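FIELD: query
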Amino acid sequence: MPDVLALPWRKPSGLAARLMWPIAAILAAAFGLVVATVVWVSDGANRIALERQLVQVGNIIEDDLESRARQLASMTVADDAWMAKGQVQGASLLQTMAEHANGFFGFDGTHIIDRDFRVIAGAPYLGGNVADAVSLMMPVASQMYLRIEGGRPAQSRRMAAIATPRDLAFGRLAYRNGRAFIVVAAPLAPSTLVERGDWLVAVSFKELKPDVLRAISSRHDVATLHVTQRPGARQIALPVPDIQGAQRAFIAWDPFRPGDVMREKLIPVSLVVLAGAILFSGFVFLHVQRLALDVARSEERTRQLVGHDPLSGLPNRMPFAQRLDQELSRIVRGDEGLAVHFLDLDKFKDVNDTYGHAAGDELIKAVARRLSNLLRGADTLARFGGDEFAIIQTGVRQSQDVEALARRILTDLTVPFDVAGTQVQIGVSIGISLAPDNGMDREQLMRLADTALYQAKNEGRNRYCFFERQMDETLKLRKVVEDDLRNAIVNDELALFYQPQLSADGETIVGVEALIRWPHPKRGMISPVQFIPVAEERGLIIPLGEWVLRKACQDGCRWPGLRVAVNVSPIQFRQKDFVETVIRIVEETGFDPSRLELELTEGVVVDDADAAEAAMIELRANGIHLALDDFGTGYSSLIYLRRFAFDKIKIDRSFLESMEATGESAILVHSMVHLGRALGLTVTAEGVETVDQHRFLQAVGCHELQGYLFSRPVTAEEIDAKLAMRQGPGPAGAIAAA
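FIELD: result
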């Protein structure tokens, strides 16, 4: 009977086997890191402790040197008092001072030295060896004389004693014949014993014998100090140079090392922690064995999801980019090209808003299925998110191949979809870039396809557009407008031009229409066709419109009796404070409101007719005139003429561009003129460029004319000149000059 407690050995699963060695490596690395950290920290603690002890002992020796130097200095400045008392004189004084230094302060030897390093007095001579004593004293005496000369003491004996600072005294360690000494020096006032009355120097020395070092150690509570020529490997040592400055001996001691204590305590603890970690890792390893299958399954599911859109099941942006790189590298070696299609569904938001997001998800799946059925096996379809799709079309030999696919997509996606129990109809806008025609870089091709998609949307949606270079320029211009237009408005960098409006005879200027221009410092003159739409999209049309109105009113004050027309954007007109803004600007500029004419389009009154009607009534109540611009291009102009109190209609220039005297356009213009006159409105025709057009409009009864036949838009100064000419030889001459 088998032992039920005996578990058969099972080979670790793939995941467990992959985890076993990393865990072992992590444990080994962790233990090594802990040990290294302990060693590093303990070494750091030892280093800090040793540096601190080295500084401490160095300060102790330095303090002892300074103390002995001060003692010698205090003795040398007392020579005047001794001589005054008559106790000793001359050479006896110097000898007495040397003996006093030895006896009272405990120096082993004290000597008085002149500038020529001759021993004037001293006792004893370092065991009777004068040469050894002089060799010790010469370096110190030399430094002392340098200090004396740098200090420039007074010349008189009395003043010298008073002026000599004690800090001229100093000391140093020195080594001679296997013995270490403390050598200190202090200045003596000019002596009468020296022929020139020069300064003398007192030099004392004390051998660093064991009893001296023990005394220093006991006073300052440090480890026992000793002099040695070869300090131990674990000792700290202060160098003691010989008389030539070479390092010959050391003051050494055995320091306290806190890091060693730290290692003794922490290393065993680390071993215990490692053993616990090994036991815990074994438990984790056995647990991973049981979970390995679940992890493997989860891994497989994750691999399937990465790179795929979970809703449609299509690849997402990352595998699309990888596949595009592969195809680009392939076409380099062949003679075929490829096309990148960026697709954006039209009216998808309406489906979401009307039927809910669940219906939107169902529509995305249906679109993905239809697109997949349209493509060949070598093509790649991806979903970038939302209602955006992308296609890599391979094997492209000519642009007709790409157009054929784009047309199939447009046709197939306009067929209604069964969604949420009903049929919905959408469209699609497509932007296309070609390789190698538009480039061979993945990022560039995707950006250009996106640019073409933007153009397709702007042109009315449900269409396709190939990338063209001017599209890129358009986008760059939009960026310039977005970045610079706001500053141009604030800094008054825009320009206002005026196009004259003349009476039907073409000779009398009755008004001007204000037309904005933008003289950009880098791109030159920018047309309003290019920046007005961007201003409306980016919320700049409100400050822009106010700037135009204010500037037009300011300039209009120069032309008494002349009407000034200003175009108003529908977005600007729909502002709640539009009427108040207009009245405020008119009052601030002092412009006559009866000479102000606001030109509105049908878009002004389409969205909210009631609010538009109230605003127009208030404007007319303040004397401001209103004109319906682009008359005849809308589908409900007659309704607007009947309801809203316009003062003028302006026939759009499109009716005059191809007008013939007996053509269809001529009939329409004739009808519009008679309609306006019947309603009591002033009728103005725009875009008059030929004499025949002028004669026809005059014949049908048009009140006012505007166009290049009479004048292009000009600056306010040129309007001044035209009006001045009008007062000269006569109206005919003025108009001819215009």
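FIELD: remark
The mean pLDDT is 79.
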